[in-house]
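All the exercises in this workshop are built on plain-text protein records. A record pairs a protein's sequence with a compact description of its fold. Backbone structure tokens are a discrete shorthand for how the chain folds in space. Once this layout is familiar, the rest of the handout is easier to follow. As an example, a complete record with its sequence and its structure tokens follows.
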Amino acid sequence: MNLAQLLDRYGEAITRAVIDTYPPLYDADVRHKSSPQLRRLLRRPLGAQSDAINATVLSLKQHTGTIVVGEMGTGKSYIAAAAAYLAGCRRVMILCPPHLVNKWRREVLQTVPGARASIVRSISDLEGIRRRDAANEFAICSRERAKLGYRWVPAVIPRPLRDARGGLSRGEDGRVLALLSCAACFAAVTDDQDVPLTWAELRTKKRHCRACGGPLWQADRAGPRRMALAEYVRRRMPDFFDLLIVDEGHEFKARGSAQGLAAEALAGACGKTLALTGTLFGGYSSTLFYLMWRFSPAVRREFGYREESRWISRYGVVERITKKCPDTYGEDGRHSKRRSYLTRTVEKPGVSPAVLFHVIGNTVFLRLTDVARDLPTYTERVEVCALDGGHEPEAPSQATCYQRLASELRHATVAALCAGSKRLLATYLQALLAYPDACTRGETVLDPESGSVVAHAPALSDEVTYPKERALVELALRERTRGRRLLVYITHTERRDISPRLTAVLERAGLRVSVLKSDTVAPDRREEWLSGQVREGAEVLICHPRLVQTGLDYEESDAVSSLARRITPPTLHASTCRAPRRAPGVHRRPSGRSARLPR
């Protein structure tokens, strides 16, 4: 009997046993007692939003860390603002992406009666909030402001190196040799092996003098004069804020990322934390560890900061690879024919159900169907577009050029792998992914070691509309006839930028196109810019999915077409949800929504 058969036969009994062992904290009795307080809000919740608010309030009162996991469009920001107010938090700090600060301010003012919502950009703004000391104070800070501080440079002095007779030592070019020394004690700056450090090594890492312990770095007076706001709150305003709301919490999961460390500092300085996310689990158990460690005291009590491997061994899926090749063993036995082989450990996708015990007691889960019923149908489908074979047998075509490029790259990559080098693997992948979309630009692959040409595909005519582009044009025209706009995702926006090509193809078909890039407009004005493009009559918006995957709703678009191939499933799922499914009675007009993913 496999797991599926076990659950089919004994599912009800297992459910009763789980409920008896772990009774829910929020039930019908708690709902009946908590529902009247929802009338204090300026906006009425929709559907299960009321239960999510009440459950979050209950968790905030009982736990230090709370998590709200909701699909895109369920109103997590509204739930968080309402729960913070109803839980009695007087001062709340909100950490969010930079393009959502204005949206958060609007959400707070439209939800909490008598609230003061301030966008924090500097230390002066924080001090102004401290001086006011008002109730229902919400400080909204972008993660960029929270993490970015001053720039640092090495702080050492070069001292002339002298020989045994006391004279100046000179190099082969006649210059006086210098030894970098500590500015406090004048001791030579060396590493753990007593090897003198160079300027390049000192610029990569903050170091301390081994003799006196003094810092070997200082603030760069030529750089920006600022302090990371997260560090300022941790040092100067501990316990001032009652609650920290972390929006898009899954983006703070990396161990050494600046924004993850900033969130960790703010979580330690605030009384409680409320993390909001639509994708809590990223496929691997390691994606949960530092996220849970930063926002869950129970995980911090059980695991140390550097015990990610112990977390993976307990809750993850681990594969151990041992290659028993006669030429690759580690060592021979001294008195026998024993041979030891090196074993490599690799984490695989998957997670143990036991990890639920770390989240089920303080996590609120919400789906879009719980909030709004009778939603229009939503479909996703992959449209396969064959490469263009051309009309003349002798002329180069998209298909023949791609096949030749793939053959040359494969031959060179296999030869490099046989020689023990993996230097061409990344190039092999990116070149073959990019050429079908950018065949009018050509592709030349160079060997990173020798600089020689490994493979080449010529630039094809830009007067031809290729199959994938024709499919996109047909989709855009079809959506326009239905009175709907189209959102197009691309990943090649830098060196292999294909947005000018797509813009030209779409405009040639009579469509009005807008392109959004990271430098098109400041992040905090991105929402306003999108509204302006809609007012000007834009029918197609082209952008990278990461620019709109978090919280930025493009409500005027009902169809999404992704030409991006190499994006993670969480990014793909979050970005395709930027075009909302309008439910009757909730939004102005009902409409279906579709996502097409050309290959």
Residues 581-599 have pLDDT under 50 and may be disordered. Residues 1-36 form one domain.
